[in-house]
Design goal:
6-stranded mixed barrel; elongated; 563 residues
C-alpha cells in the first residue's frame, strides 16, 4: 500500500517521521522514527510499518542520529507527527520559535530546505485515493524576528523584559536592533516598503525612526542617558513604508527595558519608621528600618561580614537642640558603645535598629543615624523628619518646682494643711494630668485622702494634696495611687514630736501621803508637798512662757494648791 492510517494521528507514508512514546517504543533513547516503507505481510494479512530509529545527540537537544534500521514499528508507539530537516538548516533558523516537534539530522534522508506538504485523500465505498503535494517554501525576506543587542551581546528576554545594568549618569550608546525573516536570514529590500520598520523608543526626543531592514542589518537606537533606575520601552511596527496598513495592526515587537543603576561604595544611611510613620511617642521603644546608599542614592551591593565600629544616633529638634537617642537591651537597660551593636542588624544593604527610645518633651525634629562599618565606611545620616508626641500614661510623680524633697516633715498628731502637687506623666516625665480623668489619692496606713485636680497657668494641670491627717511621731510610708493602673509615687511622711505636754506625773512625800480623820468628823484638812513632773513629747523642757495652768482634783472637789 501507499500508506497507512493511524486512528489518532492521521495518514502516514514512506518518508514521514513519527514521534515515539518512550514506554511503548523500542528503547528509552529512541525519540522518533523515519518510515522507510509500508508493507503487507501475506502470512498475516496485516500492514506493517518498516522504520529506521533515531536517538537524541548529546551535542544539541534538537539534533538526532540513526541507531537502528529496517525495524517493524508497533503503531501503538506512535504519539505524534514530527518534522525532521537536514542539520544544515539548524544554523540558519531561529530555534527559539520552532515548534517542539521540529528536529535535525545529518542524514541525507532529510530535506535541506523548508517544505510544505499537503495530503489529498478521496474515499468511497471500495477505494481510497491519495495524492501528496510537496513544495519548497521560499522565505519572505521581510522582517519577522527582532533581536536586541548591547554591543555584541544579545539581551535575554524574560517575559518581554530585558535587564540592563549601567552606572549613574552613564550614556548607553551601543543598543541596536537586528531584524531577520522567519528563517532567521537577513531581510531583503522590497519595493512595496514591506521591509521598512518604524521604531519608537520611550526615551527618544525626536520621536519614531524608520529602520530600512532590507538595506542594513542593524538599527542603532538613540543614546540612553541613565539618570536613575527606570523602565523604558521599545516598540517596532512593520510596513512603515506602506500606506495601506495601520501601525496599530502591525506591531511586530515590544521590548521593556528595565534599567538598573549599579551602586557605588557605601556612603549614606537612609532610615524610616515601619509603615512610613512620622510620629514617635516619647519614652516608648520603637524600631527603625534603613538602607545603605551610595553617594547617588542607590542601594549598595551587600557588604560581606559587616563589622559595626561606631554609632551616632540623635534627635535634633527644630530649635536646634540635640537629644541622644537611647538604645535598650532586652532587660530594659540602656546600652551604648559596642554593647549597643546588638541592637543593630545589617543584612545585605538593609539595616534594622531595635529598642530605640527618645526621652524628651513633645517636639518636631529629625532623626539622624550614623554608622561606621569595617573601619572604612563612614555612613553619613540622611535626616528623617518625625514628630515626637507625649507617651502613654505611665507614672505618678511630684510636679517639678513644687517641693524640694519627696519626703515630708509634719508635726505629730496635728491636722496639717499643705499645697503639694502631683501629676500623671509618661515614662519620661511629660505631664498628662489634663487628659487623666481618674482620681488620685494619698494612702497612709489605712487612711485615704483624695487629691484635688487643679490648673495653674505657670505649672499646668496637677493634682493637689492639701491635707495630711494627724499622725503619731515617727516615719510613716505613704503613696499616691490611682484606681487605674499607674506606677504609684512612694514617699515618707516624718511626723516630728512637738514640745508640748503629753502626760503629767505627781509624787507626794512618803510621810505626808496618808491622812486620817477622827470618827464623827465631817472633814479633815491637811497640807502636804508634792512634786509634779510635766513630760513633753520631744523630751525637752518647756519654756517659762509655755508653762500650763495646773489644777489638782480629789474626786469632785478641786484642791487648792500653789506652785
Amino acid at each position: 500500500p501507499v500508506g497507512v492510517f493511524h486512528k489518532e494521528h492521521g495518514f502516514f507514508q514512506a518518508g514521514d517521521c513519527v514521534m515515539l512514546d518512550t514506554e511503548d517504543g523500542p528503547a528509552d533513547d529512541c525519540r522518533f522514527a523515519w518510515i522507510k516503507s509500508v508493507q503487507n505481510f501475506h502470512e498475516s494479512s496485516e500492514t506493517g510499518i518498516i522504520v529506521d530509529y533515531f536517538s537524541q545527540s548529546g551535542d544539541h537537544p534538537r539534533l538526532f542520529f540513526q541507531t537502528q534500521t529496517s525495524q517493524i514499528l508497533n503503531p501503538i508507539a506512535i504519539c505524534g507527527r514530527c518534522l525532521v530537516f537536514h542539520d544544515s538548516l539548524r544554523h540558519s533558523l531561529d530555534l527559539d520559535v520552532l515548534a517542539d516537534n521540529v528536529f535535525f539530522c545529518e542524514s541525507e534522508l532529510f530535506p535541506k530546505c523548508l517544505q510544505a506538504t499537503l495530503d489529498l485523500i478521496y474515499e468511497n465505498e471500495t477505494t481510497v485515493l491519495h495524492q501528496r503535494l510537496t513544495r519548497s517554501m521560499k522565505a519572505s525576506g521581510t522582517p519577522r524576528r527582532m533581536k536586541l543587542f548591547r554591543s555584541d551581546l544579545q539581551l535575554a528576554l524574560n517575559r518581554g523584559t530585558a535587564l540592563i545594568n549601567a552606572e549613574h549618569n552613564e550614556t548607553i550608546s551601543d543598543l541596536r536592533l537586528v531584524a531577520t525573516d522567519e528563517t532567521n536570514q537577513p531581510c531583503q529590500p522590497r519595493e512595496d516598503g514591506a521591509s521598512d520598520l518604524q521604531v519608537e523608543c520611550s526615551w527618544a526626543d525626536k520621536g519614531p525612526s524608520v529602520f530600512a531592514a532590507g538595506e542594513r542589518d542593524a538599527f542603532q537606537l538613540p543614546p540612553l542617558h541613565v539618570r536613575s533606575i527606570s523602565k523604558q520601552r521599545i516598540s517596532v511596527f512593520a510596513g512603515a513604508g506602506s500606506k495601506k496598513k495601520r501601525l496599530q495592526e502591525t506591531r511586530l515587537f515590544d521590548y521593556e527595558l528595565e534599567v538598573m543603576v549599579m551602586p557605588g561604595n557605601p556612603e549614606r544611611l537612609k532610615i524610616c519608621l515601619p509603615g512610613n510613620q512620622e510620629v514617635v511617642k516619647a519614652g516608648a521603644v520603637f524600631t527603625l528600618e534603613g538602607v545603605i546608599l551610595d553617594k547617588n542614592g542607590y542601594a549598595i551591593l551587600p557588604i560581606s561580614n559587616p563589622s559595626l565600629e561606631n554609632i551616632s544616633f540623635t534627635f535634633t529638634c527644630d530649635d536646634g537642640h540635640r537629644v541622644p537617642v537611647l538604645l535598650y537591651d532586652n532587660n530594659s537597660t540602656a546600652v551604648e558603645g559596642r554593647a549597643a551593636a546588638g541592637n543593630i542588624t545589617i543584612k545585605g544593604s538593609r539595616v534594622t535598629v531595635r529598642n530605640a527610645c527618645i526621652a524628651y518633651h513633645p517636639s518636631k525634629g529629625s532623626l539622624e543615624l550614623g554608622l561606621k562599618l569595617n573601619k572604612c565606611y563612614d555612613l553619613k545620616p540622611v535626616k528623617l523628619d518625625v514628630e515626637l508626641v507625649v507617651g502613654d500614661p505611665y507614672q505618678i510623680r511630684i510636679q517639678p518646682d513644687c517641693h524640694d524633697s519627696a519626703d515630708l516633715s509634719v508635726p505629730s498628731m496635728a491636722d496639717y494643711e499643705c499645697d503639694i502637687r502631683f501629676m500623671v506623666a509618661d515614662s519620661v516625665g511629660n505631664n498628662l494630668s489634663a487628659e487623666w480623668d481618674h482620681e488620685l489619692a494619698l494612702q497612709v496606713h489605712k487612711s485615704s485622702t483624695k487629691l484635688e485636680k487643679v490648673y495653674d497657668p505657670s505649672r499646668g494641670d496637677a493634682f493637689r494634696l492639701s491635707y495630711i491627717p494627724p499622725l503619731p511621731a515617727g516615719a510613716h510610708p505613704a503613696k499616691i495611687t490611682s484606681l487605674k493602673r499607674l506606677q504609684m509615687f512612694n514617699f515618707m511622711i516624718n511626723a516630728t514630736p512637738r514640745n508640748s505636754v503629753t502626760w503629767i506625773a505627781m509624787t507626794v512625800e512618803d510621810w505626808q501621803k496618808h491622812y486620817e480623820c477622827k470618827e464623827g468628823s465631817a472633814c479633815v484638812g491637811a497640807e502636804f508637798k508634792a512634786k509634779i513632773q510635766l513630760h513633753t513629747e520631744d523630751g525637752k523642757e518647756l519654756p517659762d512662757t509655755h508653762m500650763p495652768n495646773l489644777r489638782l482634783w480629789c474626786k469632785q472637789c478641786q484642791v487648792t494648791m500653789s506652785y
